Amino acid sequence: MSSPQPxxxxxxxxxxxxxxxxxxTVSNVLNHPERVRSEVRERVxxxxxxxxxxxxxxxxxxxxxxxxxxxxxxxxxxxxxxTDVARGAEDVTxxxxxxxxxxxxxxxxxxxxxxxxxxxxxxxxxxxxxLAVFDNDVSGAERIRRAGGRVVLLDVATDxxxxxCTVRIDYxxxxxxxxxxxxxxxxxxxxFVGGLREIHAVARxxxxxxxxxxxxxxxxxxxxxxxxxxxxxxxxxxxxxxSRSRAEAPDGIVAAADLVATGLMQALLPEGFRFPQDxxxxxxxxxxxxxxxxxxxxxxxxxxxxxxxxxxNLLLDEIRNPEHVHRxxxxxxxxxxxxxxxxxxxxxxxx
Amino acid sequence: MSSPQPxxxxxxxxxxxxxxxxxxTVSNVLNHPERVRSEVRERVxxxxxxxxxxxxxxxxxxxxxxxxxxxxxxxxxxxxxxTDVARGAEDVTxxxxxxxxxxxxxxxxxxxxxxxxxxxxxxxxxxxxxLAVFDNDVSGAERIRRAGGRVVLLDVATDxxxxxCTVRIDYxxxxxxxxxxxxxxxxxxxxFVGGLREIHAVARxxxxxxxxxxxxxxxxxxxxxxxxxxxxxxxxxxxxxxSRSRAEAPDGIVAAADLVATGLMQALLPEGFRFPQDxxxxxxxxxxxxxxxxxxxxxxxxxxxxxxxxxxNLLLDEIRNPEHVHRxxxxxxxxxxxxxxxxxxxxxxxx
Lengths: 351, 351
Hints:
The structure is a homodimer. In chain A, the strands form 2 sheets. The first copy, chain A, has a 7-stranded mixed β-sheet. Chain A is 44% helix and 17% strand. In chain A, helix 1 (12-19) crosses helix 3 (38-51). By secondary structure, chain A is α/β, with parallel strands linked by helices. In chain A, helix 9 (200-214) links the parallel strand 6 (189-193) and strand 7.
């Protein structure tokens, strides 16, 4: 396996920084100059000339002689979101005559291990990299762009200012759909359980749930946070809920993650709480464990497979299409109503 | 990425075939000649000379100039056994300064897709490959050996005659431990539910369960097969069980897989069956969904993480140790007793 030195290239980000404008402004100068004030336009064009920025071409040159292989760096192979992404990406590559190799940074490995795999994939001259982000951290993408590689960022929680295609799941809509589903079941004392506002994906879900409640007269929502998103976090919060009077306990719960919901059920069932009669429960991400539960769990479905497909299609377009323009893809989640929120009778799927 | 032609080498398998003996006999001729009858020994040695077999050296030469990367070809990234293996393997490689890249053949891709990834990894001159087998099919390993590559076979269901290290989970013991656990709870009318005898891993589990029952006077076990191992297969068999009189229904069930067990629970709970009062239930492979169930499921734990660790350690030994000898590693499963078989009181872990 050969190991050429990655070539440092000037990226759109470098131009944006040097010209003290946003990436979007640089992109507009290149694609829609009429949208940019002439004074800013001239500053950006002067910076482009000064730094020697050549749009995408350096990256193309480096990768053009390369392999028929693309890479995917996962955040956590133990989380089915990332393996769903792998399946979607793999189905696109295999029908395109390409190969997909995957690497797992891991929750413990974190961004240092992610960076090590990025460097490794770049040295191997892979055609491009699908990069799943750790909590909106785009440093890995910048690393790839600096080395002249192609990257599509997956699972950003908000729109990020980066010189690459991105695929985002609309987590705000996840929270909105979950809370609105409970409100439609007549629930009025809602709780959002689990996670911290500091985690982008949790903050977005909570914001969506709060928006649904705000649109609905006479309902309330409280936030019961937890440090992690495991079943034990759900059980700990369940004990707090069980210690209240029934009139003060929530009658509808949006769990930040399905493991939190499972923990809530495990600890509240023995306390005599019935689902959904006493508490209608829905979780914000559909993992296998929710579908296979003995009391099937209502969930917001994360479109992991579609994220993988969309991400790989964007990457292949960047590889093959000389007119490629970076895009921001936002995928909507779905709602699967199951027994934990609607009882046995009315189980079904809404979109 | 360079693409040299894989070099065809003579393997131990070729010698065994040409001399019409087993691989074990060839190995004995090389390692323990005193164990082999002189007539056979001479035939094998003559074949080795005729074919030009050079023990392991061709493979070493090919790989020696290669990368610091090893590969892992999964059967199905949606099955947590294979992602547990990935985590175990990754922890060994990352602490050894190596990189692990993974590829997913997939259940639909099957052995053709597996072969495509094998060829791709060989062209990339990876140092070696961890190969998870499809139902005891060792053709992939032979493909790698023919090309002069190193391979460790993971999750063979029985000892196989192949010129490579193997890591096997003792599935017979899985079935034995599961049935013996139910017998110890006083259950006497057992059923083994799900799968087909044609699947090696299912046949081994069933054989183990039957052995436990045979050792135990006054107990019986019936086999209720299903074409697949999904929750819907469990639900279909549950309807057959519910249509019997209670005296003829099993009082203990070993489910071939955890999804089958979940399907059984989903369909039998509404029919008034209680777990474990009416039926003590245990599943033969521990996936995440079993642990997170609202009625936690007793399981036999598959040591996927340990399989990955052991496999990678064997592969690194083959890469680094000139005295490497192929080994057969057999890992024992564990038993996690949870509510579905022992009720709320006596939940714990046995080994």
